Every structure is written in structure tokens, then in C-alpha cells.
From TrEMBL, chain A:
Protein name stated in the entry: Uncharacterized protein
Organism: Lacipirellula limnantheis
Primary localization class, coarse: membrane
Ranges of compositional bias, category Basic and acidic residues: 147-156
UniProt cross-references to Pfam families, sorted A to Z: COX4_pro
UniProtKB/TrEMBL annotation, chain B:
Record's subcellular location: Membrane
Native source organism of the sequence: Lacipirellula limnantheis
Gene3D superfamilies referenced in this protein's UniProt entry, alphabetically: Cytochrome c oxidase, subunit III, four-helix bundle
Keyword Transmembrane recorded: yes
Keyword Transmembrane on entry: yes
Matching InterPro entries: Cyt_c/ubiquinol_Oxase_su3, Cyt_c_oxidase-like_su3, Cyt_c_oxidase_su3-like_sf, Cyt_c_oxidase_su3_a-hlx
Annotated EC: 1.9.3.1
Protein name, as recorded: Cytochrome c oxidase subunit 3
Listed transmembrane segments: 28-52, 64-87, 99-118, 296-316, 336-354
Any matching Pfam family: COX3
Chain ranges of the Heme-copper oxidase subunit III family profile domain: 25-355
Length: 156, 355
């Protein structure tokens, strides 16, 4: 059986004693304060994309990539230091990895039917959507919106 | 005999825990595993609905203020560090200091909720609700929208017109309602006379814009705009708003806006329409993609707020205890939950406010 503890002190762990496990775990107060300051700084980095000082203009792809990278960094800092996973034994993988994988699969499962629902929408559906299709609005009824994207007979 | 000796001295069994952590912490982590999947479902639904939508409102179209989101994020990060400091104080058996940090955490969490309540109020006051009967959002300026506006105008005007002794204020209100009805008549006439042309839709869009001007349309006319929009070259003798409304009316995709341009407008980019000018009007509003936005926004932030409230209750209960070393395990478990709540907001902030 795989050893879920990398710390020899855990080999004699007594589950009935809540104080037997945590001694020696965690960082110093200075570390926690530094992490908190880093988190505030990273929040400002996210907000930076919204200010006139953002150097990449209105390029949405760069903005979103930057913001997601910043968010993931912040999440890692919180998980590693504030939630003490940096100092925990190997059991942390047993509980967090399956849940994270299930989460990812759940989101991916939504993409084909929900996320891409407008990619192959019929002209009739687009007419009744929030914005008017360009050719319909220009007064050309019956014209296919994007013929290449609408296979014959396919309507959703 | 050997059998006799076995019964007299049973083997000494020792309890071996499955995982090297206390049961409470194990339960909390198992709970957090389910919470990860719960919020992944909610945030995932938001992401696929948002990026698969034909139209989606900009932040200022729906009265969201980015700075408030950033401040709330900083407040929640502050509350996370105070929990950690409370745990460290409890481990050192400094009960009074631990309680002080917990009280501060409670205060910061309450500030977060207060800001959220303020933000919700801004939505509700503009008729932005997640669903009927309170929601006044229409997706496009079509005949259904025109009928809803006409019905609301009639609801307001009929009692005023039936009054025997009308005041000056009543007359002023009737005048406003008449001007809206006249504009509505003109738009519907265009729709009837030229059903194939966009003129009627443009007229309705213009009325919808008067009622509830969207920042994403108006931001394009800001004089201090980004260089990328200079190619529009709006001529001086034309009404720029009119031209842009026509452009929006005939566009197949939503008009993208410059975030920097929105911030340069007054009132953090939110514009004043008839509904703001005359709060008694409460006319239906037109926000493309607004209904899906409202449903997902209130669902995601609502569940997050419920989690914050549960955390605050836990901190409130901790405040009634002597937080010495014996309570460090409890503080750690509540802290883990609170850090998870912080973690969820770390992803919600850019997704809701900045994307």
C-alpha cells in the first residue's frame, strides 16, 4: 500500500488526538503576510487590464490569458500556504486530484451542447436572438447567413 | 495447550488511521472536494453560456463596477490572512489574540457581504432581476418589447388621465408618457409599412436606447477613444449616436467596447436614461443577452454569498469560545472552508467583472 505520509512523525499518528498532527506544519507569520501582500498585488495585476495603463490595448485574448494566469497563481498561493497543502502529506493528492479532474470533465462535457450551441444555429433562430443577423437587418430575407456554417437541413 | 494460551492472551490490536489527519479535517476536505465540483459546475455553466451566447452585455451595461469587485477581492484576501493569524495565535495558546483575529475576520466578511448587497441593489433598482415577475429585461428591440413598453405606458397614464383634479406634476408625467407613446407609434408604423427594411427596428432601438442607454454602444462615441476606433470617422453633420444605433441594429455580432473608454464616462461608465431621469417610469429595458447574464450572475454570486454567510455564522460561533490551543483544530477547519470561499471568488472576480 502506498505510504500517504512523507513525514516519519505521521507513522505514529493518533487520530483521536487533534493536536498530535499539526506540530511542525505551516509557515511563519512573515510568510503568511508576504503571501497576502502577493495576493493583493496580483489582484491589482488583474485590475491593471482594465486601466488605461494596460499596454496591449483591447486585445481580448491577451487580457483573458493574463487574467486567468493571475487567478491560477493566486489560487495556488492560497491552496499551498493558507490551506497548508504545501506542508501536508501525500493524502492531499487523493482528495484534490480526483475532484479537480471531475470538475474539468464537467466543464468539458458542457461545451458541445451548450458552449457551441450558436455555432450551427439556424437562420430562424438567429433572427429571434438578441441581435439581428446582418443580411436580415439589411432587408434581404431568405438569404442564408453563413452558408458554409449551415449544412442543408440542419436546424437546432 | 496453545489454544488455551491464545484465548488467555488475545493479540494486541492497534488502531491505524487511514489518513494521517484528524477525522474532522478529513471530513472537511471531503466536503471541500464536493464543493470544488459544485462550484466547477456553476462556473463552468457560466463560462459555456457566456462564450456560446449570441450577445452578452458589457460590465457597464448591467451596472457592475470593476473597482468594487477589486476592493471586495482585497477584503476577502484580508479576511483569509486574519484567519491564518488566528490559527497561529491559537496554536500558541494566545486565546485573546486569536479571538481578536476572528472578530476582524467576521468584520471583513461582513464588509464583503455589504458591498455585495450594495451591488445587488444597483441591479434591482434598474429592473435587472434573474427572472419574472420582477425582471424588466428584453433581449431585443422587437414587437414584443414595443408591446411591453406600450402596456407600461398605458398602466401609468390611465389613472393620471382619469384624475379630475390633476396637478402640474401629473401633467408633466402625462407629457413624458405621451412623448414615449408618440415615438412608439412612429416606430410601429415603420414596422408595418416597411416590414422588410431595418427602419422600424432602428426606431425601436433608438427608443430602447433613450429608456436604458447601454454603455457598450455609447462608449464608441467618446472623444478620448482608443486609436483603434478612429477609423470609424463619424462625420460632423451626422448624429454619432444615431449612426451607432443603426450600426448596432444591423450588426450580427454584439458591439465590442473598449474597457478604457467606458471608464472615461461619468458615473463609472453608467449612463442616464429615461428610467433614471424619471424613476417612476420603470419601463421595460433592452439588454441583449441580459436575461442569461442575470440568471448566471445571480446564481453564481448568490451561492457564493450563501457560503460567505455560513462562514460568518461559524466565525460568530467561534467568538463565543475560548480560542486556546484546544480549539486550534476547529479554527483550522473553519479556516480551510473560508479559504475555499476566497478561492472561488478569486476566479469569479475576473470572470464576472473583467472578462
Amino acid at each position: 500500500m502506498a505510504n500517504l505520509s512523507h513525514d516519519p512523525a505521521h507513522q505514529s499518528f493518533d487520530a483521536s488526538d487533534p493536536h498530535s498532527v499539526e506540530h511542525g506544519h505551516g509557515g511563519s507569520i512573515r510568510t503568511y503576510v508576504m503571501v497576502a501582500l502577493a495576493l493583493v498585488f496580483l489582484t491589482a495585476c488583474s485590475y491593471w487590464t482594465y486601466t488605461p495603463f494596460w499596454p496591449f490595448g483591447d486585445n481580448v485574448a491577451i487580457k483573458r490569458t493574463w487574467m486567468m494566469a493571475v487567478s491560477c497563481t493566486k489560487a495556488m498561493l492560497v491552496i499551498l500556504f493558507f490551506m497548508h497543502l504545501k506542508w501536508e502529506a501525500n493524502w492531499k493528492w487523493v482528495l484534490t486530484v480526483p475532484a479537480s479532474m471531475m470538475s474539468l470533465l464537467l466543464v468539458l462535457a458542457l461545451v458541445p451542447d451548450v458552449g457551441r450551441r450558436m455555432n450551427y444555429a439556424s437562420r430562424e433562430r438567429l433572427i429571434n436572438s438578441a441581435q439581428q443577423p446582418e443580411r436580415e437587418a439589411a432587408g434581404k430575407p431568405g438569404t442564408a447567413l453563413r452558408p458554409a456554417e449551415h449544412p442543408v437541413g440542419e436546424k437546432h | 495447550m496453545s489454544d488455551h494460551s491464545h484465548s488467555a492472551h488475545p493479540p494486541k490490536l492497534e488502531y491505524q488511521p487511514a489518513l494521517p489527519i484528524p477525522n474532522g479535517k478529513l471530513c472537511l476536505w471531503l466536503f471541500l472536494s464536493t464543493e470544488i465540483m459544485f462550484f466547477a459546475g456553476l462556473i463552468g455553466a457560466y463560462i459555456v453560456l457566456r462564450f456560446g451566447a449570441a450577445a452578452w452585455p458589457s460590465t457597464h451595461d448591467v451596472h457592475l463596477v470593476e473597482l468594487m469587485g477589486a476592493i471586495n477581492t482585497a477584503v476577502l484576501i484580508g479576511s483569509s490572512i486574519t484567519v491564518v493569524l488566528a490559527l497561529e495565535a491559537a496554536k500558541q495558546n494566545n486565546a485573546s489574540l486569536a479571538k481578536g483575529w476572528i472578530v476582524l475576520t467576521l468584520a471583513l466578511g461582513s464588509i464583503f457581504l455589504g458591498v455585495k448587497a450594495f451591488e445587488y441593489r444597483a441591479k434591482f433598482s434598474h429592473g435587472i432581476y434573474p427572472g419574472l415577475p420582477h425582471s424588466q429585461i428584453y433581449e431585443s428591440a422587437n414587437v414584443n418589447y414595443a408591446a411591453a413598453v406600450r402596456q407600461r405606458v398605458a398602466e401609468l397614464k390611465n389613472p393620471l388621465a382619469a384624475k379630475e383634479n390633476r396637478t402640474e406634476e401629473d401633467d408633466a408625467q402625462i407629457q413624458v408618457l405621451d412623448s414615449i407613446a408618440a415615438e412608439l407609434d412612429a416606430a410601429e408604423k415603420l414596422l408595418r409599412d416597411k416590414p422588410e427594411a431595418p427602419d422600424g427596428r432602428v426606431a425601436l432601438l433608438r427608443l430602447a436606447d433613450r429608456i436604458y442607454p447601454r454603455a457598450s454602444v455609447h462608449a464608441l462615441h467618446d472623444g478620448n477613444m482608443h486609436d483603434e476606433l478612429e477609423h470609424l470617422k463619424i462625420e460632423d453633420d451626422q448624429d454619432p449616436l444615431e449612426e451607432e444605433i443603426e450600426k448596432a441594429a444591423s450588426a450580427a455580432t454584439p458591439v465590442l467596447t473598449l474597457a478604457s473608454a467606458e471608464t472615461s464616462n461619468a458615473d463609472a461608465g453608467h449612463l442616464v436614461g429615461l428610467n433614471d431621469q424619471y424613476p417612476w417610469l420603470q419601463l421595460p429595458i433592452m439588454i441583449p443577452g441580459g436575461n442569461t447574464w442575470a440568471s448566471t450572475y445571480f446564481l453564481v454570486t448568490g451561492f457564493h454569498a450563501i457560503h460567505v454567510i455560513v462562514g460568518l455564522i461559524a466565525f460568530g460561533l467561534l467568538c463565543t469560545k475560548t480560542l486556546n490551543a484546544a480549539y486550534s483544530g476547529v479554527i483550522e477547519n473553519v479556516g480551510l472552508y473560508w479559504h475555499f470561499v476566497d478561492l472561488v471568488w478569486i476566479f469569479l472576480f475576473p470572470l464576472l467583472y473583467l472578462f
